[in-house]
Amino acid sequence: MVSAVRTVLGDVAPSDLGVCDAHDHLFFGSPRLPGQELRSVAAARAELVAFREQGGGTVVQWTPYGLGRRAADLPPLSRETGVHVVAATGLHQAVHYDEDTLAGLRGRLAEVFVSELTEGIGTSGGGRDSSRSRAASTHWTRTPAGP
């Protein structure tokens, strides 16, 4: 059973998550998808507010490493809107990255992902992510969750 879900503001009991949007992108930018960028904090805030007004409680923000996650903006957005935000770690398909980024990651993927889970996103991801928000992780136990 999951004992806690790590959000950008800290661990939350699963029972406190409410209705979850399990895959969304509040921010995103890929050179392979021109014109499809999501870079507006105001637009992200409006989406979270609208989600909350419809009964939503948690959004899992799946924008991966190096594609404009804007990690520094996630905690304030969560606080301001009252929506839990879970930030993911990982990479998209290689086609979305330049060769220099990929070369810098070769042989270091586990190190990068574990660091994002345990220390925070920080400035990982090509310098576009600049908070100490922790990426999504869960804590597993063999003990069933209580009522």
Structural class: alpha/beta
Give the CATH level 1 class: Alpha Beta
Helix content: 25-40%
What is the terminal-to-terminal distance?
13 Å
So how many helices?
4
User: Compute the gyration radius: what is it?
Assistant: 16 Å
Q: Which spans have pLDDT < 50 for at least 5 consecutive residues?
A: 124-132, 136-147
Keywords: Hydrolase, Metal-binding
InterPro entries: Metal_Hydrolase (IPR032466), Phosphotriesterase (IPR001559)
Pfam family, one: PTE
Protein name: Phosphotriesterase-related protein
Question: What does this protein structure show overall?
Answer:
The strands form 2 sheets. Strands 2-1-6 form a 3-stranded antiparallel sheet, with no helix packed on it. Strands 3-4-5 form a 3-stranded parallel sheet, with helices on one face. Helix 1 (41-53) packs parallel to helix 2. By secondary structure, it is α/β, with parallel strands linked by helices. It has helices spanning 41-53, 74-81, 99-105, 109-118, and strands at residues 2-7, 10-12, 19-24, 56-61, 84-87, 138-140. The chain is globular, with a radius of gyration of 16 Å. The protein has one domain (2-140): Alpha-Beta Barrel (TIM Barrel). It contains 4 helices and 6 strands, in the order E-E-E-H-E-H-E-H-H-E.
Short recap of the structure:
Helices cover 26% and strands 19% of the residues. With 147 residues, the chain is an alpha/beta fold. It has one domain: TIM Barrel, CATH 3.20.20.140.
SSE map:
Blueprint: E1 2-7, E2 10-12, E3 19-24, H1 41-53, E4 56-61, H2 74-81, E5 84-87, H3 99-105, H4 109-118, E6 138-140
Parallel strand pairs: 3-4, 4-5
Antiparallel strand pairs: 1-2, 1-6
Helix pairs in contact: 1-2
